[in-house]
Amino acid sequence: MVTKILPAGNIQSWIDKLVASYGVYAPVEVEGASSFKQIKAGQAPAFDARTDLSPKGIIFKQVEKILSYKKDENGIAIEYAPEEETKTVIFGLRPCDARSFTLTDKPFLDPVMPENKYAERRKHTALVTMACNKACNTCFCTSVGGAPDEKVGDVWMMNLDGRYIVEALTEAGEELLKTAGSLSDATVDDEAAAKRIGETVAASMEKLEVPSAKALDNLFTDEAFWQNLTAKCLSCGACTFVCPTCYCFDVKDDGTVKSGDRYRGWDSCMFFQYNRAAGGHNPREFH
Ligand code: SF4
Ligand code: SF4
């Protein structure tokens, strides 16, 4: 697809048009903490922030109701939570965050047993990815097959001194760009400038040594490695909650034997209770 230029000063009017038709989530900073929140017309996203929390929770909700149940003399009645049809845009997420959804898709969009709530939201959510003009010292996308200028999501964009080079990557992205007002064609120089930025940012990042799958496999039975790692762990679960690709969940009922609601919520393998089985047996107690 072709690259275009969104003129300087036009990004907010585009966002405002999107806000009129979609639920738009973008990076927002509040008292030094940043995350993706739904924005209103006129609200400028914090594009410079590398958010503390990924946008995972917009599609894979931290807690959500799956169904309600009621039991009486006629049997059990189940009412499923209604389908969500709100069209959503996640605007200004970084290529690594956009790419992370391809991993949460694996369990939740399984062709045999998809998770309906995730699948509905994924279908109704478009991703507008903002390429990175600089990297943080914690960035490592290039070590795991990504790139600061990776074209991933529905629309890709990069800041070129206030103007934005933009490209629709999917049909949904083309629809979004139709609301962006007048766009000019990107020149060869614009494309070369974007490529240079991507290469410069990539070159500024440290390359991590990623162990082979075999080496990782071997770690599973390396008792000393796990003892050393867990000695420092408080079992708070925060690392799995901020991770964009951790997808464990738990299902709990809130109610009585006669009626109640069933919820699905994030779980964490770092919780001590994670392995506890029915009857109370927990293999972790033996370590
Ligand atoms: S430079 Fe790479 S790791 Fe850092 S925010 Fe951008 S895409 Fe993510
Ligand atoms: S659960 Fe994760 S964040 Fe919490 S202490 Fe353990 S390693 Fe650290």
Overview features:
single chain; 287 residues; alpha+beta; eight-stranded mixed β-sheet; four-stranded antiparallel β-sheet; 9 helices; 26% strand; globular; binds iron/sulfur cluster; 4Fe4S_Fe-S-bd; iron; iron-sulfur
Topology of helices and strands:
Elements: E1 3-6, H1 11-21, E2 23-30, E3 33-38, H2 56-59, E4 63-72, E5 75-80, E6 88-93, H3 95-108, H4 116-124, E7 125-130, E8 155-160, E9 163-168, H5 171-178, E10 184-185, H6 188-204, H7 213-219, H8 223-230, H9 238-242, E11 249-255, E12 259-266
Parallel strand pairs: 2-6, 6-7, 7-8
Antiparallel strand pairs: 1-9, 1-10, 2-3, 4-5, 4-12, 8-9, 11-12
Structure description:
The chain has 287 residues and is α+β, with helices and mostly antiparallel strands. It contains nine helices and twelve strands. The chain has one domain. Strand 11 and strand 12 form a beta hairpin. The longest helix is centred in the C-terminal third of the chain and has 17 residues. The protein is globular. The structure holds iron/sulfur cluster (2 copies). The site of one iron/sulfur cluster has 8 residues, from helix 9. This is 4Fe-4S ferredoxin-type domain-containing protein.
Terminal CA distance reads 55 Å
**What's the shape?**
globular
Main β-sheet: number of strands, strand sense, barrel status?
8 strands, mixed
What order do the helices and strands follow?
Answer: EHEEHEEEHHEEEHEHHHHEE
| Percent of residues in β-strands | 25-35%
Bound molecules: iron/sulfur cluster
Q: Residue share in helices? A: 25-40%
Q: How many domains is the backbone divided into?
A: 1
Q: Identify the strand order in the major beta sheet.
A: 3-2-6-7-8-9-1-10
Query: What is the tally of beta strands?
Result: 12
What is the subunit arrangement here?
Answer: single chain
Mean pLDDT: 94
- Alpha plus pi helix count: 9
Specify Rg, calculated over alpha carbons.
Answer: 22 Å
